[in-house]
Amino acid sequence: MPEGRTASSFGRRLEAFALGLLLFVVTLGIGWLAWSVVEWRNGRTPSYRILGLRVVRRSDEKTIGLGRSLVRSGICCPLLLLPTAVVCAITGLCFALGASPPEGLLSKPRAAPWDWMTSTTVIDERQPPLVDPKPGRKIPGPTELSRATTTPTYRQNGRAA
After folding, report:
1. How far apart are CA 126 and CA 109, in angstroms?
2. pLDDT tens-digit profile of 21-61?
3. Cα separations in angstroms, 32 against 59, 68, 69, 145
4. 160 exposure class (CB count in 10 Å sphere: 0-12, 13-18, 19+)
5. Could you give the C-alpha distances from 145 to 7, 48, 141, in angstroms and in order?
6. Which of 41, 88, 127, 155 is 20 to 30 A (C-alpha) from 50?
7. Does residue 70 contact residue 33 with C-beta atoms inside 8 Å?
8. pTM tops 0.90
9. How many CA atoms lie within 13 A of 103 on its CB side?
10. Contact 143, 105 (CB under 8 A)
11. What's the pLDDT score for residue 22?
12. Over the chain, what is the mean pLDDT?
């Protein structure tokens, strides 16, 4: 993903999925479908619009158009949703039976299989883009920042070691 934008977290995408289901049920599917066709031109679904998420091309972060949205949301996502849910259920069962999850499983941004197939990513527009004050310097992400900040150890006189 190009520097400067923040990929949406698993939690935000899960919120969008739950909200999408709710909107689908409330509008009996017809209102959701009509609204979706309008929003797909802007790289969104109705729930993504409400939550401030957008689907962009991975190469240049430009909004995907109606064609790629139809392929992503209308073909790839429905075809891969059931296999993805089965794999997640089996993985969750393994964790429930005592397997330990890899570090950062839910904290790092992830790409869904339909994002990989269509070379897209979901960004969170409500988070401000990272701006680097010095050109050419790499902007640390949240995981690098958490590793970089350490708590100093103190000696008996109260000064940092």
Report:
1. 16
2. 999 999 988 888 888 888 888 888 888 899 998 889 888 88
3. 29, 19, 15, 40
4. exposed
5. 16, 28, 6
6. 88
7. no
8. no
9. 1
10. no
11. 93
12. 76
